[in-house]
Amino acid sequence: MFTINENYLQLNESYLFSAIAKKINEFTLLHPDADIIRLGIGDVTLPLVPSVIDALHKATDEMAKKETFRGYGPEQGYEFLREKIAEIDFQQRGVSVSADEIFVSDGSKSDTGNILDILGEQNSVALADPVYPVYQDTNMMRLGVDDRLILLSCTAENDFLPQLPDEKIDVIYLCYPDNPTGTVMTKPQLKQWVDYALKHRSLILFDAAYEAFVTEDDIPRSIFEIEGADRCAIEFRSFSKNAGFTGLRCSYTVVPKALKTIASDGREVSLHKLWNRRQSTKFNGVPYIVQRAAEAVYSPEGQQQTREMVEYYMQNARIIREGLLSKGWAVFGGINSPYLWFKCPGTNDSWQFFDRLLNECHIVGTPGIGFGANGEGYFRLTAFNSLDKTREALERIKNW
Ligand code: PLP
């Protein structure tokens, strides 16, 4: 009889969003006319911008002609896109990342999980609690419940930012701006982690999926703004939230050439080479049409149009933040992030608050407990609904 990877049996049932859907269904059956506003989703709602749509049409037409048809592309991504990413996301901001350090992919969700393929199983791994659940689940798929997985406690007392561990940890996930708490690290705070990693020869896996939402000057958009990070960090970026590609699928991962470690036989090994080997073996690239669409994000019009899209969501974030603060609630995030995280008023049970908000205001959010034990008593709202719905939701909360 064949066997299975029994670590999967140890995973928490991924019941958060199905439990939310079930509760909404039950509520709708009882109150069919209620106008429910959903501020729980982490998915975008605005359509793709015109430059991206034009590029998709043009690339589709190319695929229809013998002379311009494209089959398999380079596993690492087309040069036209990698060059633009290196120039506009990094070099123009004074950060030294070259095109051949960029690996174009179909999503940061895949890459943050797949990166474990090139890392040893003996590593101790640290994650924040609360956290984007993919980091924890993908590690547990390899290890099961294991004490090599260490949770860094994030609470209101430390402004939902993890403290440097006392012990030596091999691999550390950092996500800033953070999902779910919306918090960010300043340059000096991030530098402490880079210094820690260089000192202990640790690897930082930096998820910058929400980089485009940074509004304040002293908040780094890339870990490579910190000196020495190219020797200790890998960065994940996505077109999902800055350009609305959640359905189109495109992202990239930066693996610097300077990032090296020592194998058990004493050899120095480049992680760039390993990731290149991994991707060329297990991945056949992102569709040509989609990479042309991603390239269009970097045209002057594409930059302008996607910036407007992000500003639209950030206007919602401001409305939510100001509304919650006006109630006297303790609020995190929403300044450099589309996520708002707040202490549930009057209860330490985030599901209980979910029920009250749904029943009394007809608003859906996400209970903090879904992101880890430290999320209990907290709640997440997102800025991805429309301006009108967001305004309406906050009016209801203000009058609650
Ligand atoms: N990383 C974080 C922190 C996220 O919140 C998300 C999506 O919500 C992702 C990665 C997934 O990005 P992608 O759509 O590129 O797979």
Explain this structure to me?
The chain has 400 residues and is of the alpha/beta class. It folds into 2 domains: 6-47 and 301-398, Aspartate Aminotransferase, domain 1, CATH 3.90.1150; 51-298, Aspartate Aminotransferase, domain 2 (3-Layer(aba) Sandwich), CATH 3.40.640.10. It has 11 helices and 15 strands. The protein has helices at 16-30, 50-63, 79-90, 108-114, 133-143, 187-200, 271-282, 288-296, 300-326, 350-361, 387-398, and strands spanning 37-38, 102-105, 125-129, 149-153, 171-175, 203-207, 233-238, 251-254, 260-262, 268-270, 331-333, 339-343, 363-364, 366-367, 378-382. The strands form 4 sheets. It has a 7-stranded mixed β-sheet, sandwiched between helices. Strands 11-12-15-14 form a 4-stranded antiparallel β-sheet. The longest helix has 27 residues, at 300-326. The chain is globular, with a radius of gyration of 22 Å. It starts with 15 loop residues before the first helix and ends with a helix. The model has no long low-confidence stretch (mean pLDDT 96). Bound molecules: pyridoxal-5'-phosphate (PLP). Residues 42, 107-109, 132, 175, 179, 207, 209, 238, 240, 246, 251 line the site of pyridoxal-5'-phosphate.
- CATH arch. level architecture of the largest domain: 3-Layer(aba) Sandwich
In whole angstroms, the N-to-C terminal distance is 59 Å
Continuous helix count = 11
> How big a fraction of the residues is strand?
5-15%
What is the 3D form? globular
Strand arrangement, largest sheet?
2-8-7-6-5-3-4
The number of domains: 2
The secondary structure category is alpha/beta
The average pLDDT is 96
| Oligomerization category of the chains in this entry | single chain
